Each structure stands twice: as C-alpha cells, then as structure tokens.
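Exercise 7b. Backbone tokens:
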C-alpha cells in the first residue's frame, strides 16, 4: 500500500510571515525529512546535515531575538513549527526543541557580552546544543545533582557525569548545571561548555525502544576547565534557570507529541479508507469511526491546550501550570493515539512496513522526558492546592 503524506493541519497563525514560515517547514519536511525518516531511524542515524539545513533556514533560533541571529517569532508560532517537524520525524522535532532549551539560559540570563559572543553561532551558525541537568542518580530530583564546579582562579573545573543527554557526544555546546556551593537547590550554577572542551567525553549512546536516530548518552566531565566568563547568571542561580527553561521546554515536548499523534492519525485514516473487509472500507465500521473521532478530538484538544499556554507566555503572563498541563495531556494523547493507530492497522500495524509501530515506540519517551508525567501532576497540584506538607 503506497505511503500518503499527512494532510496539512488548518492552522490559525497571527501573521502572513508565520504562514510563509509554516509553508517553508512543510516543504522541508516533505522533501528532506519524510523520505529518509524510516530508513534512518531503523539504522540509528542522526541527520546532522539536516540540522545544518534547518540552521541555514533560520529554524533553530525561532523564538529568540533577531539581534543575535534568532527569528523573533512568538512561541505560538515556534511551537507549531515544532509540531510540523515532529510529524515528519520526531528525532528532528525533538532535536530542535532540545537545541532551543539549551540556548535558553544564555539568551535569557547571559550578559550582553556573552550574548554577542556566543548566541549568533548558537542560533544561526550551524551549532547544535545539549542540555545537561539529569544525572545517573538524580532525574526527577534535580536538586540532588552531584556534578561539581570548583573555582580555580579565573576559571571553573567541572567534574561529574550527566545522564540521558539528547545530542550527547555530538553537540557543539552543552548548557551544564553543576554544584558550586551548598547541598540543595541554592548551590547550583549554570555554565556554557564547548563541545570540544578537553576532558569532556560521552559514553556510547543508549540502546532505546524508539527514537534510535536521536543519540542519548551519558556525558562525562573529567576536570573540564571553563573560564568564568562562561558562567551563566549568578552563582547559585543555576537550578532556577534550569527549571524556568523547562517550563518553556515542556511546551516544546507538548507540541512534538501532538505532531507525532497527528502523523499517527493520518496514517490510520489513510489505511482505514483504503483497507477493505467484508466488501467495504473498514472506515465504514462504526467501531473504527468512533476510534478515529476520539483520536482527532484528543489531538485538537492538545493543540488548543499548548497554544493557550504559549499565548500566555508570549503575553508575559505566568504559564507554568498550563505548560505542565499541556505536557501531561499532549504526551498522554500521543501514547493513546499511536496505540490506537497500531490497532486500526491490525497485523500490519505491528510490522515495520508501516510507520505506526515506530510512532507508538517513540510516543512512550515523551511521557518521560523533561519531567515525567507524574512530576507534571505534582506541579499542577501545587498550583492548585499549594506545596505538600513536610
């Protein structure tokens, strides 16, 4: 059965420039991403040359200031670009989201001198970033991290190991949270570390259920020396910077999840309208029609939720609760929709001849990264009823 391109989503965009941007992204997706996605994922190949193209096209710095090579786009637009990229291949959409997350600390908390020196290459110069917060023993409990940075004259010496790092081993720069002071959340500082710094190395990539084309690896810091002018923000401000970045990053994950779910729905619709059983298309059976209707409704609800949170962010209003809700709902939706897509395709859905099984494997990680969905429920509950009693 021939592949069909996903049907374009009817988007409400704020400007003509945004409409042109989405059109550009769709062209790149159909010409450069979709044709190679299945083969490269199966081979575990990261499409670095594609990220170079995205950088040249202005797509790696969309939500940042054009003064430093960004795109001056509101989050409402940037997230819909992510959704389009993730629908074509999750490795690409998530990779752009992680790069944006890694750029946030310097863009939001760096000095003018740091921004002038580093941001143009990070946002539009072909560089690729990684975000280093989690460690082998501290995932959800980020404040328990042990990687240390010790002052040595006008520099810092970083020692420790970070875990579950997207782009680990291939990134050009790492935004690293390290302990510079007391135990707990107030003793952590952020640093911008070059990818080729002496003493920095990466373990072999993790062998994962899905997203095999996106390298996830431990990153080791063995006495990595960085000058103090690569410290981002004040000493002890690192965890606050990291968690603020994650509020926006969760919206990126939500948008990627909806893109993946949309791709799965499109695949299921294509199959259900072409596959015939008992003399008619299986899309004519009420049970399947109801499944498709539920899938489409969940996707639309998720898209509306992440866009509502993005508009709050663009207006400068608090959005942490809505970001947690969007991450929770959209990634749960991706898991449900991709599972239902496999079911609709039946036996074919369980084979690698169709992308539905890949979508289902990829969806699972979205419920885990950048704060598990259990953590999102904790965040939402704290906004509703206050912190837990100690």
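Sequence design result:
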């Amino acid at each position: 059965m021939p592949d069909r391109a996903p049907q374009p989503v009817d988007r409400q965009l704020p400007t003509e420039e945004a409409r042109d941007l989405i059109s550009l992204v769709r062209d790149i997706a159909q010409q450069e991403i979709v044709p190679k996605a299945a083969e490269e994922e199966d081979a575990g190949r990261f499409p670095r040359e594609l990220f170079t193209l995205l950088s040249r096209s202005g797509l790696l710095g969309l939500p940042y200031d054009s003064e430093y090579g960004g795109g001056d786009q509101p989050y409402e637009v940037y997230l819909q670009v992510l959704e389009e990229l993730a629908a074509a291949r999750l490795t690409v959409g998530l990779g752009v989201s992680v790069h944006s997350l890694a750029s946030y600390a310097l863009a939001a908390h760096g000095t003018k001198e740091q921004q002038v020196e580093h941001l143009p290459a990070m946002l539009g110069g072909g560089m690729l970033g990684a975000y280093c917060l989690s460690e082998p023993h501290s995932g959800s409990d980020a404040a328990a991290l042990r990687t240390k940075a010790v002052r040595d004259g006008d520099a810092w010496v970083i020692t420790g190991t970070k875990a579950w790092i997207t782009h680990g081993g291939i990134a050009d720069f790492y935004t690293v949270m390290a302990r510079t002071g007391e135990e707990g959340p107030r003793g952590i500082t952020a640093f911008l570390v070059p990818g080729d710094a002496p003493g920095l190395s990466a373990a072999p990539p993790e062998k994962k259920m899905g997203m095999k084309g996106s390298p996830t690896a431990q990153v080791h810091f063995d006495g990595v020396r960085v000058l103090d002018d690569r410290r981002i923000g004040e000493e002890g401000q690192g965890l606050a910077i990291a968690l603020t970045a994650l509020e926006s990053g969760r919206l990126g994950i939500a948008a990627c999840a909806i893109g993946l779910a949309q791709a799965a729905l499109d695949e299921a619709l294509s199959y259900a309208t072409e596959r015939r059983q008992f003399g008619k298309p299986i899309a004519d059976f009420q049970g399947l029609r109801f499944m498709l209707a539920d899938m489409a409704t969940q996707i639309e609800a998720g898209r509306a939720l992440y866009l509502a949170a993005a508009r709050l962010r663009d207006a400068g209003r608090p959005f942490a609760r809505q970001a947690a809700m969007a991450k929770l709902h959209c990634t749960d939706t991706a898991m449900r929709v991709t599972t239902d897509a496999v079911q609709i395709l039946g036996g074919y859905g369980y084979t690698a001849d169709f992308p539905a099984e890949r979508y289902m494997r990829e969806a699972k990680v979205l419920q885990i990264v950048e704060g598990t969905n259990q953590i999102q429920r904790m965040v939402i509950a704290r906004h509703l009823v206050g912190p837990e009693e100690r």
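Instructor comment: The chain has a mean pLDDT of 95. The longest strand covers residues 155-166.
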